[in-house]
From TrEMBL:
Residue ranges occupied by any SET domain in the UniProt entry: 11-249
Protein name from the UniProt record: SET domain-containing protein
Source species of the chain: Malassezia arunalokei
SUPFAM superfamilies referenced in this protein's UniProt entry, alphabetically: SET domain
A GO molecular-function annotation: protein-lysine N-methyltransferase activity
PROSITE patterns per the UniProt record, alphabetical: SET (PS50280)
Pfam families for the chain: SET
């Protein structure tokens, strides 16, 4: 498949590993570069749905061993088996040339715990996400993403057998893990008919914040099997020589690292340091630092009016929530939860170091019998200064507790050389970003 021939306005190139200066994204991997200026609104590529690698089109779907378990698999795992199967077919697969383009993406969930990268990851938001995925799997509740234990379980209980029956040969765990990384870092939902799919060409676009292109498909359609396309459209004008960048979603660097194996050098604005009360050690840390009881903590919510106002304003910050009796304005107005990760973990500090509403209410003591919450405090401004001060101290304590668990907090003077492997580079960068976020929070809530 000659990808570059699909349209005349882009080149697909492999960025040199020292291309950092020239392009911000993904040195050493494939990228799409405009060969001529591209006006905003222009469709850069139309990918026919027949070219998608998805469970519908994969020959594995015809094997009884796979059909038998497919309904019980998550879409990610189902597609992982399809990609693995096509990969094992080698040149006999109609996707062979497409599959040969996939780079190896070592995801943190499979990093060796004794490796340098795993060490630098300690205490970061990404390491918490991995722990939460593990906890959700063993605790039987929903969380975004797939845990390492779930992967191992599915491989050993059904995966090895499906592959043996479909291919007549054993397939390795390492190959399964590689297929999973490819799906995690490249697949997206096209429409109701194809579901989660690998989309040739569209998945060569790297992630940019902001992006200058987007991928379009009729996500609600069920009948796209005949003649449908997935389109790549410029949403901004793109100069000749500029990289065409997609957005992988409203993701902070922790999610980018866990799902895609890289982080941006800049903050996307979606960065979070969050606490999930369903994970025992995170709940214990919250209760100790905020001086609250575990049974209450699950019931604290964001005030509906605050959430509505904040979302309606399209801003990620409200006007200051507190003006004290003397008219002094407190500039640490809490933030609403706005992205899908926040819905799972509404207790967080955002990219600018501000506490979420739920964290703020907990810190104010709204979860205890002595209710000095936002509503009570606004009704009696005389209460404000002392309770706000206590809330600030509690949040500060929480940040210190979290910083103390971070490897980088104790090893800032021993950073690895810039020539280290890319995985070490990503881990250190993510740890730095979390460290700065927590320091920003400490500065904001200093009383
Ligand atoms: C959908 S693929 C993008 C195409 C990829 N460059 C290739 O060679 O096929 C996603 C992978 O590209 C890399 N990537 C994408 N955007 C990146 C960025 N802004 N910085 C660094 N790596 C990026 C990551 O390895 C990610 O897992």
């Amino acid at each position: 498949m000659d990808l570059a021939a699909w349209d005349d306005c882009v080149d697909v190139v492999r960025l040199a590993s020292d291309a950092r200066e020239e392009y911000a994204s993904a040195p050493g991997t494939l990228a799409v570069i405009a060969s001529d200026p591209i006006p905003a609104g222009r469709v850069i590529a139309r990918i026919p749905c027949q070219a998608l690698l998805c469970a519908r089109h994969c020959a594995l779907s015809r094997h009884p061993a796979f059909q038998h378990v497919q309904a019980s698999l998550t879409p990610v795992l189902s597609l992982t088996f399809c990609v693995l199967y096509e990969g094992e077919l080698g040149d006999a697969s109609r996707f062979a040339s497409y599959l040969s383009l996939f780079p190896d993406v070592p995801l943190p969930l499979a990093w060796d715990p004794s490796s340098d990268e795993a060490r630098w990851l300690r205490g970061t938001e990404a390491s918490r996400i991995l722990r939460r995925q593990e906890h959700a799997w063993t605790g039987g509740y929903k969380y975004i993403g797939t845990s390492y234990s779930e992967l191992r379980h599915v491989w050993h209980t059904v995966g090895e057998r499906i592959m043996l029956e479909a291919l007549g040969a054993r397939v390795s765990w390492a190959a399964f893990l590689r297929a999973f990384s490819s799906v995690s870092s490249r697949a997206f939902v096209v429409d109701l008919y194809h579901g989660l799919s690998m989309v040739p060409f569209a998945d060569i676009l790297n992630h940019g914040a902001p992006n200058n292109a987007q991928i379009e498909s009729d996500v609600d359609a069920y009948s796209a099997e005949m003649g449908g396309t997935v389109d790549v459209r410029a949403i901004d004008s793109i100069d000749a020589g500029e990289e065409v960048l997609n957005s992988y979603g409203e993701l902070g660097n922790a999610e980018l690292l866990c799902q895609y194996g890289f982080v941006l050098d800049t903050k996307s604005g979606w960065e979070r340091c969050s606490w999930d009360v369903r994970v025992p050690e995170e709940c214990t840390q919250l209760c100790a630092c905020l001086e609250c009881d575990a049974p209450w903590i699950h019931h604290v919510t964001e005030p509906q009016q605050a959430a509505d106002a904040q979302r309606a304003s399209g801003d990620d910050g409200l006007p200051p929530a507190y003006v004290d009796a003397a008219g002094a304005v407190y500039d640490f107005a809490p933030v609403s939860h706005t992205n899908r990760h926040d819905r799972h973990c509404p207790i967080f500090i955002d990219a600018s170091g501000r506490a979420s509403w739920v964290l703020w209410r907990l810190a104010l003591g709204l979860c205890s019998e002595h209710v000095y919450g936002y509503e009570a405090a606004s009704a009696n401004t005389a209460l404000l200064p002392s309770h706000v001060r206590v809330a600030c101290q509690r949040i500060t304590r929480l940040c210190h507790a979290r910083l103390s668990t971070m490897y980088i907090q104790h090893h800032k003077d021993a950073l690895p050389p810039t020539s280290s492997s890319s995985t070490v580079h990503w881990a250190v960068q993510h740890a730095w970003q979390d460290w700065h976020l927590l320091r920003a929070c400490l500065a904001r809530y200093a009383t």
